[in-house]
C-alpha cells in the first residue's frame, strides 16, 4: 500500500483486546464495538456496507443475505476455530475470503475438555452446591460417589486437533483406554501418538465410560447425540460436549439425565446459546459452563491476534494464514 492510499476499512464486530484494536488501527480505518452492543443482522449489514473486511467472533452470523447486501466486503476473519456462523458457500461464491483461528487454542481447549470431564465424573459442582447450601452435616461412605477417570475407557467423537490433544491427556496422563470415532480414520502413526483406537460410533457409545464430543458443527453432525444414541450408553457413563450446541439434542439429554439413563454430563455449549434448555437448569447431574473452553487470557489474545494477522496479510499481500475457503474471483467496485 502506498503512503497516500486510503486505508482499507474494517469492522471489528465484537469487543476485543484494546491492544489488538490499536495494532489494527495502524493498518486500517477501524470501526469497533468495544461497548459490545448486540447488533442485529440489519444493523450489522448497515455497518458492513462500507467495509472491506470484518473481524468476527462465533456469535456474528455472516449469511448469504448479508453478503448480498455488502458487496464491498472481501474478508471475514473469525476469532474462533469453528466457523459455523459463516455461510462458507455463499462467501466463496461472493468472492469473500474466510479465515478461522485454529491451533492457538488446541491445548487450552483440551485442558478444559478434561476439566469438564473430571468435574462431571467426580461430581465437583453438584457437591459444591450442596456444601454452599449448608446441607453438609456429616460425612457418609457413599456421599457424592462418582466414577473414576484414571484407567477408564474414554470415547472421543471427532478426532481433529483438539480431540487428539484430549486423547493424549487421557492415554498418557490418566492411563485410559482411548477409543475414537471420526469421519475418517487417522493414520497409524497419529493413532499411536494419541494412544487411540478407531471404532464405529455404536461401539464407542456402548463401550465408553466417558464420551467427549469435539466434532465441528454441520448439518451432518446435527444431533450426533440424541435419544437413540443416549440409549446406547451405559447408565454409569458421562457425556461432555465442548463442540457446539446442536451436536447434542439438549432436550433428549435433559430427559436422559433426569431418568438417570446416563450418570452425568458436562456442557460448555448449548443449542440456541446463550439460552440454555430449561430442563438442563433443573437436573442436578450436569455441569454447565458458558462456552469458555478456550478462555485463558493467553489463548484468547492469540486467537484475536491471529484473526488480526489474517486481515493485515490479506490486504498487504493477498494471502492469509488460516483460510477456510478459496473465494471465487469476482470483479469489485473500487
Ligand atoms: C470461541 C470456539 O470462544 O473457537 C471456537 O470455535 O467455540 C471458542 O473458542 C468462540 O467461538 C468465540 O469466537
How far apart are the first and last residues' alpha carbons, in Å?
15 Å
Molecules bound to protein: 2-keto-D-gluconic acid
Supply the CATH class of the largest domain: Alpha Beta
* Tally of DSSP β-strands: 12
Could you describe the largest sheet, including whether it forms a barrel?
Answer: 7 strands, parallel
Name given to the CATH architecture of the largest domain: 3-Layer(aba) Sandwich
Report strand order across the widest sheet: 8-7-6-9-10-11-12
Estimate the strand proportion. Answer: 5-15%
What is the CATH homology-level superfamily of the largest domain?
NAD(P)-binding Rossmann-like Domain
Shape: elongated
N-to-C series of helices and strands: EHEHEHEHEHHEHEHEHEHEHEHEH
Question: Any overview of this molecule?
Answer:
This protein has 334 residues and is an alpha/beta fold. The chain has two domains: 9-104 and 297-317, Rossmann fold (3-Layer(aba) Sandwich), CATH 3.40.50.720; 106-288, Rossmann fold (3-Layer(aba) Sandwich). It is 37% helix and 14% strand. The protein is built from 13 helices and twelve strands. The chain has helices at 18-25, 41-48, 64-69, 88-93, 106-121, 124-132, 161-174, 188-194, 201-207, 227-232, 250-258, 278-282, 297-317; strands spanning 9-12, 29-31, 53-56, 75-78, 97-99, 153-157, 177-181, 196-198, 210-213, 238-241, 264-267, 286-288. The chain has a seven-stranded parallel sheet with strand order 8-7-6-9-10-11-12, with helices on both faces. A five-stranded parallel sheet has the order 2-1-3-4-5. Helix 7 links the parallel strand 6 (153-157) and strand 7. Helix 5 (106-121) packs across helix 7. The longest helix has 21 residues, at 297-317. It is elongated. The model has no long low-confidence stretch (mean pLDDT 97). 2-keto-D-gluconic acid binds at residues 57-58, 79-82, 105, 294.
Amino acid at each position: 500500500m502506498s503512503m497516500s492510499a486510503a486505508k482499507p476499512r474494517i469492522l471489528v464486530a465484537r469487543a476485543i483486546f484494546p491492544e489488538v484494536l490499536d495494532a489494527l488501527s495502524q493498518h486500517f480505518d477501524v470501526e469497533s464495538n468495544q461497548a459490545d452492543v448486540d447488533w442485529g443482522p440489519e444493523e450489522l449489514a448497515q455497518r458492513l456496507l462500507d467495509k472491506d473486511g470484518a473481524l468476527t467472533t462465533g456469535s456474528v452470523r455472516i449469511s448469504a443475505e448479508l453478503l448480498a447486501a455488502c458487496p464491498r466486503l472481501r474478508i471475514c476473519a473469525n476469532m474462533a476455530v469453528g466457523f459455523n456462523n459463516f455461510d462458507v458457500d455463499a462467501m466463496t461464491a461472493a468472492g469473500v475470503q474466510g479465515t478461522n483461528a485454529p491451533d492457538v487454542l488446541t491445548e487450552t481447549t483440551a485442558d478444559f475438555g478434561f476439566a469438564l470431564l473430571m468435574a462431571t465424573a467426580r461430581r465437583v459442582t453438584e457437591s459444591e452446591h450442596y456444601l454452599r447450601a449448608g446441607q453438609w452435616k456429616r460425612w457418609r461412605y457413599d456421599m457424592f460417589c462418582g466414577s473414576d477417570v484414571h484407567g477408564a475407557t474414554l470415547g472421543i467423537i471427532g478426532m481433529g486437533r483438539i480431540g487428539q490433544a484430549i486423547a493424549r491427556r487421557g492415554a498418557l496422563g490418566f492411563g485410559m483406554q482411548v477409543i475414537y470415532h471420526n469421519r475418517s480414520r487417522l493414520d497409524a502413526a497419529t493413532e499411536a501418538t494419541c494412544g487411540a483406537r478407531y471404532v464405529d460410533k455404536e461401539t464407542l457409545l456402548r463401550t465408553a465410560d466417558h464420551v467427549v464430543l469435539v466434532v465441528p458443527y454441520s448439518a451432518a453432525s446435527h444431533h450426533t447425540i440424541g435419544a437413540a444414541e443416549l440409549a446406547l450408553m451405559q447408565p454409569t457413563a458421562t457425556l461432555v460436549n465442548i463442540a457446539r450446541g446442536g451436536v447434542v439434542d439438549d432436550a433428549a439429554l435433559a430427559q436422559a439425565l433426569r431418568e438417570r439413563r446416563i450418570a452425568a454430563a458436562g456442557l460448555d455449549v448449548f443449542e440456541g446459546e446463550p439460552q440454555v434448555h430449561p430442563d438442563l437448569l433443573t437436573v442436578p447431574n450436569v455441569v454447565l459452563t458458558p462456552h469458555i473452553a478456550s478462555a485463558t487470557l493467553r489463548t484468547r489474545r492469540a486467537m484475536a491476534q491471529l484473526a488480526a494477522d489474517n486481515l493485515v496479510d490479506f490486504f498487504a499481500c493477498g494471502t492469509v494464514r488460516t483460510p477456510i475457503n478459496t473465494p471465487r474471483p469476482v470483479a469489485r467496485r473500487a
